[in-house]
Amino acid sequence: MKWTNDFLNEKRKHGDPLADKAAAALFELINSQTGDNQKKKVARFISEFVSHDFTHEWDHSKHELKIPKELFDYFEDMTPFNFTHEESKVLERGSQFFTNHGPKIILILYARSLIKQYAHTKAIQVLRMTTLLEEHVHRRIIETMQFVADVMNPIWHHHHDDKDRSKFNTNHVGKQSIQKLRLVHAMVRYKIKNNLNPKKEGTWDYDWGFPINQEDMIFATHTFSIEVIKGLQQIGTELKDEEINDYYQTWSLIGRALGVDMDLIPDSYEEGVKLQDKIYERHFTLPNDDGPVLAKALIQWVVEFFPGFSEQTALTLIKEINGPENEKLIETHLKLNLNKAHNDLAEHVNELDIPGIEGADSESKKMSETDRIAIFFIQNLLTIERGGKNSHFRIGDGFLTDWNINQDREKPMPKKELIIDSIILAIRTFFLKIFGYFNKEHDGHEKHKH
After folding, report:
1. Cis peptide bond N-terminal to 287, omega within 30
2. Residue 432: burial class (beta carbons within 10 Å; 0-12, 13-18, 19+)
3. What is the mean pLDDT of the chain?
4. How many beta carbons lie within 10 A of that of residue 42, not counting itself?
5. Which of 77, 313, 340, 395 has a Cα-to-Cα distance from 103 of 20 to 30 A?
């Protein structure tokens, strides 16, 4: 058997060398600057650098700063996106799968994918060390859903380009999100390795493995593919074998682009399930002191932000979408009381006094209760995030049209170009926050020295 404990234990010792070098170079650049004027120059550089299209040459004359080679290597490396013609077709079919089932997929991310992530006793330590267990829980939930929506956008390649039908779409919103997330993971590893996390959280225990290591990376990727597929099947969605394989292979390609080692990416869905089950066996262990904290926050999130949703609604969704085989895990590892769930999701949905769910119009009457609550979930997600302080959930107009979601809002959904601008803004905001945090930590260390 390929997925032996020895093989996986070795994978827990390794991160993502290319991204890790870039993260270290960025932190060193930030730390090398003193004075407000220099800090502003670094901030301006970061803002422009991370949004630059590296298929075009960077103009060194515009900046006085000497840019670390490792940053150029990271952003200029298009190897992770060198998809073959057949691979690009797989990505397009994966996007079509998301078009067909998107609202339910987003709902499953909430009720199943994140639940499985919180049950991993070692991987969850990263969230504790970076205080994401206590702060920004809402933002993390949204960013998980946002990442999936971004990479599921179609047109990874310019098939309409007569000169080169396999020309990669360098402006694809998914590519931007992948590069951002991969570097975010590397910067988290850097902070943990260099003890830049809050002192109250202590130091990293390497018995947990390397922070965000290779095994944890494929585990997380599988929660977006395998768990979504199983979640769809659990709620009665009929899926053909080729659809399942296409969606799984789509996420294998995304995992590769995120820095997962090739020898850790299974060749098929069936082999992927074997690997994921092995990881669950290894790391769904007790005690799990931190998982219940996030699981509780997951429940509170829908109660706070989704009008009409209650604790019972959240627990009913979790129970229905995970199925009987996961009930013991949810109750013993995450301390969620599924006895509080309604015994019948369809009946519970019909009882909810929520506009758009009660089935008053002819279109909603044709939908199953699961479809109706999934559509409402997306509609409300878009609405609440338009006024959010941390994240703004976006999804392509094409998806909304296909899902027949009402787009009559105070502000229309952005077109493709504005979506890309939003990603760039998110990247800039992230780095500026990192820049500010690092300086605060650095100043604190300096004061301590004196």
Report:
1. yes
2. middle
3. 83
4. 21
5. 340
